[in-house]
Amino acid sequence: MQAFADLYAELDATTRTQAKLDALARYFKEVEPADGAWAVYMLTGRRMKRLVGPRRLREWLVEATGLPDWLVEETYQHVGDLAETISLLMENGEVRPAVEGSLAQWVEYAILGLRDLEEEQRKTHVLEHWRGLPRQACFLYNKLLTGSMRVGVSRGLVERALATLSDRPRALIARRLMGEFTPSGEFFSQLFDEEHREERDGQPYPFFLASPLEGDPSSLGDLTEWHAEWKWDGIRAQLIARPNGIWLWSRGEEPMGGRFPEVETAALTLPEVVLDGELLAWDADVLPFSQMQRRIQRKTVGENLLREVPVIFMAYDLLEYQGKNWRDRPLEDRRTALEKVIADSADPALRLSPMVRGTDWEALASLRAGSRERMVEGLMLKRRASPYRSGRARGDWWKWKIDPLTIDAVLLYAQPGHGRRANLYTDYTLAVRDGDTYVPIAKAYSGLTDKEIQQLDRWIRGNTVEKFGPVRSLQPKQVLEIAFEGIAPSPRHKSGIALRFPRIARWRHDKPAEEADTLDQVKDLLRVYGS
What we know:
Elements: H1 2-12, H2 17-30, H3 33-43, H4 54-65, H5 69-79, H6 82-91, H7 103-111, H8 119-132, H9 135-146, H10 155-166, H11 170-177, H12 185-190, E1 211-212, E2 226-230, E3 235-242, E4 245-250, H13 261-266, E5 273-281, H14 289-296, H15 303-308, E6 311-321, E7 324-325, H16 331-345, E8 350-352, H17 361-369, H18 371-374, E9 378-383, E10 397-401, E11 405-416, E12 425-434, E13 437-444, H19 450-462, E14 464-468, E15 471-474, E16 479-484, E17 486-489, E18 497-500, E19 503-507, H20 519-529
Helix pairs in contact: 1-2, 2-10, 4-6, 6-9, 10-11
């Protein structure tokens, strides 16, 4: 356990990719297989079920420290991270011994051991660790308790470290890490076993991710070398049909069994195959994403919702066919086989993503210009000769998205961020004018440079009207341009409107608040582009 705590601290202390890669490689080289499996599990973003909520942890912290709850809350807001707040307040300047035992043993006892305990026993168990662990180990323990163990290490970096250590292709390591797995010494050893067949029941493949195309598409060369299709606005998924079952996996490696029964039923008509595609709400044509959200929010779907929001699987690639891996074959060959698979199925819940044809790049750009009316996000451009790669390998797949919608909104409220930005105001609530008042329209967290964040933070501190806990109400003076992908009516929002994926496009120093957009102007956008 101590070795993993030291690794976590080392990773958290640097932003250099090579330093992180070296630290990971050293750890995996020396670690016992069972500990290595748990480290892989945690560092690739997988989470154990949270057994104690953050609210309860704050209550126990107040009791354990004897501090007033307002002071604990104020400290938490200042630090910005509950795990770090607990480790700092519980240290008391004591020098505590290093943690004994392996990571696997420690997880089994300290974390998973909470499963069978009653509430009071859980509190005793947690406080015992808070009082006995050195600060860095206590910090890590609380990260695992809260399910928020992020340390600036990408999944790809873990794959690279394991591939370097084992002298195996990174694509093979990535494949073996896909899907659900039980952290064990056997699993960790099998990551490097040349003879091991990596497939587990329903195991997906790593997704191939497109890179954004920001320049002139003609820079890609001859159009005849490229395959164009619509960039669908749904849920990216792999549909797996194997002799022992049907599986659906999201791009985030979430199993979605039972949530889209019409697609799983349709998949029974398929041969042994793995398809990449998009889950879309679809009636006579594609439905707005806001309709798809009604299905996303339900793990079990009633008959009424099944009728109101039918879902299809729009297939655009074939990764496995008749028990063989087809990812290394050219896209043209995979597409030909995919066309046959979908045609032979003939189930309306399984569709083939149509090709978009243009005589030249200019003609294709004209078709792309109508994307929003078609309720798609633009075009996908895929090299006809390309294999199906892993991750965001640049050069073969590009997403040529339409420009986002934008409005100019006024900064109304701000609160601190988390982690390294806990002492800066980086969480913004933006509003539009409605007569003589301002109506909140969106929250945004990203888009400004570090320098702009520092400048805006200083302005926020000097122009606060009121404080509500960590939130500051501000003088309505700063205008920020917001970019967003979609707009829809929403009874849950005071404005009656929800913006999809809002982010800050730029800080409008040139525009006074009186010239920001109005609620009526946003409603005009809703009438034209609303879903």
